[in-house]
Design brief:
Number of helices: 17
Structural class: alpha+beta
Oligomer: single chain
Strand order of the largest sheet: 3-5-1-13-10-11-12
Largest sheet: 7 strands, mixed
Radius of gyration: 27 Å
Bound molecules: dioxothiomolybdenum(VI) ion
Length: 765
């Protein structure tokens, strides 16, 4: 069982009164007592329910669709197919410089086309008075197809891969010197092939939409991690003004990247509501999520390393093939971390993609690094074995002083420190030097280590902060809370910046009517919002000070903001000061607002441009990333090959930690997800039909409590000098390195290398 404990924080941290503390999440009580209403729980009078029917072929045209049996089901209001659906606009284009491009969408014209682009694409929606009737009827819709040849088998198509498109956010590939020649000349080398399967997010809350129209105004309650993009997308699809579209997602039961895009269910629910004139709810079944929401691409990776006999790396090659849909998706940056991890003399990184007749792939927690660190970190371990070196010593020997490809400086890089701390706490020095040396009854015991790495991003966010005459502070920003603790973190930041009690800060989020924020992604949300929130708080203090100075009675008269301290609910200097409430009361003003970026034309994200431009400039000079060292112990049943993870320690360098409790929870959650990827998670696609064969929690094996040992998490707490508040982001680094550490521990226990995830028992027997 995972222990709930707060980790030790070593080193210095940007601790304020609240920042850095382990504070209970502000949404905790309402969630645990059932008061929180999720997207499929919003009550509406006259609510109708919708359910999807899915294509059973991968590619072709629908020649006929039979809805008679569905229409005959009691309670069915309407069955909508491409034959009767009203026309919508094709999907909008995404900007290549926006986070939206990370979740780059699909080109499918849902229910406005007879064309089928993957097995599972929605071909009809049934609207009924009850959920049961809708689902029963949807199962009765049948179609005939003019089936066309399709390519659906990733493994078979991989040799036809094409170079991956590059974007500003995800530059593909890179090289230095002649890595192939250096590999061939190296006295010690490994040249390895790895595969990882498709993975699904499996958020506890399935995707759900409740949509209601009032004329051209649309309200959508959505399980979403990108409300502003969904609003823009829906306004475009239905040719209505974006001002009239409101998307709400105050509570989201996990996203992991799967709720960052606009998928079929959202659009089709809005369509069904428009056509029936009733509010409509669609709660996808778990199978429905697998059929209509993209997943993490499978990968084939080559990692080749060449070294001198002393372990110095002369060559590092990491290439990958991943999948996209012919109808869209994300070129997953599998070799991303390999640009920065090792100071090899020669480097070759290459990313290729195959486009298949499958649904668009999408981002899933640490897209790229989650599976990329597996391959490169197992290869390093294999090289260490060949060299007869300790794998941590090999890593430290090749630890770069600057970015190995371009010579940029690291804004922050405490990889040596996390390894030193982890090795000490884990007891690495006592590790048996050879594989297969430790046995406990029938259990073979081994330990392994791997590097965690995830780049740090900052995006633009608009924020309004208000202080009222009663002393209450309101932070308004359309960011997202999927369980990470975002609202709690921003309340802590605002409380410290303004010098007010945490309890007096309220944060509004998850609503597209609020000042715009980017989608929650790239581990960037907290830093992005914090940059604008801090600037807004400065602006607010200045406004209150200016207001105070208008009165001859104010003790703040003649004071400069720079000489004042925000504390005790106001602004003070050595000789006195006054609370915000006192200033507002005397001036007879109910509240004062300060805005960053929100004055702009609706739909524009400008945020704190000064901070953001600095971030963009900085990226030319600095490499910014969170990193960590994952240590684990596994026990392998010598009779059955069953792998049990028995100990875990992750030591991380994530910059400033805002909330010790929610940060620990994020990092542990990432590790649990990594244990799943290592040992059990695998989406199976029928290579003949392209149909996902295990679209359920019974057949897609997530780790359960019994699979998860006590997880210890620790972080250094050193602020990054180039990021807002010193934050590097924590949402994704936790999953990285996990599968590699487990594979390395399995080798240490058994002497066997498994280069194909998941490490199931058949591969060990
Ligand atoms: Mo994400 S995969 O940045 O939600």
């Amino acid at each position: 069982m995972t222990q709930v404990q707060n980790p030790p924080v070593t080193g210095s941290t940007t601790a304020g009164r609240y920042v850095g503390q382990a504070i209970d999440r502000v949404d905790g009580v309402v969630k645990t007592t059932g008061g929180a209403k999720f997207a499929a729980e919003i009550p509406y009078a006259n609510l109708a329910h919708a359910a999807l029917a899915h294509s059973t072929v991968s590619r072709g045209r629908i020649t006929a669709v039979d809805t008679a049996d569905a229409e005959a089901v009691d309670g069915v209001i309407s069955v909508i197919t491409h034959l009767n659906a009203v026309a919508m606009q094709p999907p909008p284009k995404v900007s290549p410089v926006d986070i939206d491009s990370l979740a780059s969408g699909t080109t499918v014209n849902y229910l406005n086309t007879d064309e089928v682009s993957w097995n599972g694409q929605p071909i009809a929606v049934v609207v009924a008075d009850t959920l049961e009737a809708a689902r029963e009827a949807a199962a009765l819709v049948t179609a005939t197809y003019d089936v066309q040849p399709s390519t659906v088998d990733f493994a078979a198509e991989a040799p036809n891969a094409e170079p991956q498109p590059s974007s500003l956010i995800l530059p593909a590939g890179g090289s230095k010197g002649d890595a192939e020649a250096a590999l061939a000349a190296a006295p010690v080398s490994v040249d390895l092939r790895f595969t990882t399967p498709m993975h699904h997010h499996n958020a506890i809350e399935p995707h759900a939409t409740t949509a209601a129209w009032d004329g051209d105004r649309l309200t959508v309650h959505e399980a979403a991690q990108n409300v502003s993009w969904i609003r823009k997308h829906l306004a475009h699809k239905f040719s209505v003004p974006p001002e009239g579209v409101r998307v709400l997602a105050p509570f989201v039961g996990g996203g992991f990247g799967g709720k960052g895009n606009v998928w079929a269910g959202t659009i089709i629910t809005a369509l069904a509501a428009r056509m029936t004139g009733r509010p409509v709810r669609m709660l996808l079944t778990r199978e429905g999520v697998y059929r209509t929401v993209g997943a993490r691409t499978p990968s084939i990776q080559r990692v080749a390393l060449g070294a001198r006999a002393d372990g110095h790396l002369t060559s590092l090659i990491h290439t990958s093939v991943t999948q996209m849909g012919k109808v869209g998706g994300l070129p997953e940056a599998v070799t991303s971390q390999s640009k920065y991890l090792y100071a090899a003399d020669n480097i070759l990184l290459k990313q290729d993609v195959v486009k298949l007749d499958q649904i668009s792939n999408t981002a899933m927690r640490a897209p790229g690094e989650a599976i990329g660190t597996y391959a490169v970190e197992v290869a390093i371990d294999e090289l260490a074995t060949k060299l007869g070196m300790d794998p941590i010593a090999l890593r430290m020997l090749n630890e770069p002083e600057t970015d190995p490809l371009h010579g940029k400086k690291f804004s922050h890089r405490l990889l040596r420190e996390v390894y030193a701390r982890g090795a000490e706490r884990f007891g690495w020095a006592d590790r048996a030097p050879h594989a297969g040396a430790t046995r406990d009854g029938k259990w073979l015991v081994g330990t392994g280590v791997a590097t965690a790495y995830h780049p740090s991003f900052q995006l633009r966010a608009n924020v309004v902060v208000r202080v009222s005459v009663d002393g209450e502070v309101l932070v308004r920003c359309g960011f997202h809370e999927m369980g990470m603790g975002g609202a709690t973190a921003q309340a802590q930041i605002a409380a410290d910046a303004l010098g007010v009690p945490f309890e007096s800060v309220r944060v509004e989020y998850g609503d597209s009517r609020l000042p715009l924020a980017p989608g929650a992604g790239g581990s960037a949300q907290t830093a992005s919002v914090a940059a604008s929130l801090l600037a807004a708080c400065e602006k607010l203090k200045k406004s209150v000070l200016d207001l105070a100075k208008k009165s001859a009675e104010s003790p703040l008269r003649g004071q400069r903001l720079a000489d004042l301290r925000a504390r005790d609910g106001g602004l003070f200097h050595g000789g006195g000061g006054e609370t915000y409430a006192a200033v507002l009361a005397r001036a007879g003003v109910p509240s004062v607002d300060a805005a960053i970026g929100s004055e702009t034309k609706l739909g524009e994200l400008t945020g704190n441009l000064k901070f953001f431009s600095k971030f963009l400039m900085d990226r030319r000079r600095w490499v910014k990333a969170a990193c960590g060292a994952q240590f684990c112990e596994v026990r392998v049943d010598s009779d059955t090959g069953e792998v049990r993870v028995s100990r875990w320690l992750g030591v991380f360098d994530v910059g400033t930690v805002v909330n010790a409790k929610t940060a620990t929870s994020q990092l542990k959650g990432g590790i649990v997800m990594g244990i799943g990827a290592a040992l059990s998670e695998e989406t199976l696609v029928d290579p003949r039909s392209g149909r996902i064969m295990n679209p359920s929690l019974a057949e897609y094996h997530l780790p359960v409590h019994a699979d998860v040992p006590r997880i210890d998490v620790e972080y250094l707490g050193e602020p990054d000098p180039t990021m807002p508040l010193g934050l590097l982001g924590i949402g994704e680094v936790g999953i990285t390195g996990v599968a590699g550490a487990i594979a390395n521990a399995v080798h240490h226990a058994t002497g066997k290398r498994v280069r194909d995830l998941p490490i199931t028992l058949d591969k060990l027997l």
